[in-house]
Amino acid sequence: MTRSLLLVSLAVGPFPAPAPPVATEPVIRAITVRPAAPVVGAQGSVRLVIDVIAKGARGRDGVTVKVEPGRPPGPLLSDKPPVADVAAPAPAPAPAPAPTPAPITRPSRPAQPPVGSVPFLDPQPDPVRAEVPDPAEQTPEPARTAPKEGVNAEGRQAAAPPILVRRQGSAPPARVAPGWETWRFLPDKKLNRFYPTGTWTIAATAKGPNGTTVTEYASFQLKRATKLSSVRAEKSAGPATGVRVRGTLTRVDPRGLTDFGPFAKQPLEILWRPDSESAWVKVGDARTDAAGAFVSTVPGRPGGYWRARYPGSEHYAPHHSKERQITT
């Protein structure tokens, strides 16, 4: 009785060391702020939520954000071409299998199992378990006392320092796509009526593993609220058919002396539609006086629905009044 024994030769040689990971520059894809157009009223405040989508940032402070009033010192990220994903390098081809040597035939011998032999098994390593921090066990940050905000004795608005921004919680950033992470930030201070209105800048900086940084900019418009009140629409007296619209426009007082004050010398639009299903049409204009009051007469339209609208400005939000109906 014969049996075949397969002899396999192993080529002994140096194994190539794995290539170190290629250091990539940090990249910021998007900066978003909510609300996108914050409006502050006479009471309360507005809290911003800022999300930064970045790649290649390392460390707990891999992405930092600063918010301050003023225009950005460089181009906005939204004005640049969109960031394209870099294609991953193609994997190296697998080595060709070694040729199989021919079997050698030898005379068989009676099998003699070893006495007391125990098969040797390679121990399997325990699976690695990711350590997820428990939010209940983490020590919260001590509360920060915000400085008092307001206006100075001369009635001028105090200069606002940059708003410090911290990342939400201590959880790692969320992954939205291969390699991309979303970093969420909550400013320490909320915006209120005493902060300067107009353009604000968000500067987001991403730091890579080799210390390189990249900074991108976004902006938003902070505005104060306005209000149209006591708006009335009535048929004009006299032989000419028409409608007279009157009312008052006020704004949040920037000096903080009162909640809402008269908003003088502002342009207004008079809107009309024949029924509740039609679109609004601009049919007239008006302008407020020193007390914020306005009046406008629109001829040739005796009935329908009416309202006034303030289109807004760089520092004050738009607003429209409630509609008033006139029946013929």
From TrEMBL:
Highest taxon of the lineage: Bacteria
Signal peptide: 1-19
Start and end residues of each stretch annotated as Disordered: 59-176
This protein's UniProt keywords: Signal
Pro residues: bias regions: 90-104
Protein name as catalogued: Uncharacterized protein
Originating organism: Nonomuraea jiangxiensis
